[in-house]
Amino acid sequence: MVLTASALVLRFQPGLAPEPEAVVALRLESALPLAQTLRGASDRLEIAFDDCPDLGALTCVMATEARARRCGASHAMARLAEAMLIIALRRAIDTASPAPGLLAGLSHPRLHRALVAIHDSPGARWTVEALANEAGMSRSRFMASFSEAIGTSPMAYVAQWRLGLAQKALTEGVSLKDVARRSGYRSTAAFRRALQRHPE
Hints:
- This protein is α+β, with helices and mostly antiparallel strands.
- It contains 10 helices and 4 strands.
- It has a 4-stranded antiparallel beta sheet, with helices on one face.
- The mean pLDDT is about 85.
């Protein structure tokens, strides 16, 4: 995330040219890599503060914290960055490209309900029928629309999301048993098999 005097820039790929007039630059981490999560988005997303005054206001606070370096500044900047990322991603969702990916799904008038449910409760025992109900769609229409918008089947997406969260938790030192339970697997053995099938 790069903040200039007039815009917020999200960069999803390494190796892009430096942003001119950068005021603050932050490296963001997520449970799933942003480039993977936002598949279908461009490598670079720029949002002008004239088009989104809320981001401009938060940027002023961020710049002040970065300059002052007062007690707690790093924690304040981390929370500000989270808020700015949410606002920026909402903006990206509103202008999502038709390419398959999470942005396309979140911008869909019905599919977004199922995606939010998955993200909010990754450990729930999701089925296609339950997700179709969340979306308010028939099973067949939900399956077709989900695959078209996201680029994969609903249950494959559920597995991908769970494993992304699980792998992050494992790197943070959470036990295999607890990670398996949180991720919705009925046993540690089932979770191990899922990791072997999808190591990354």
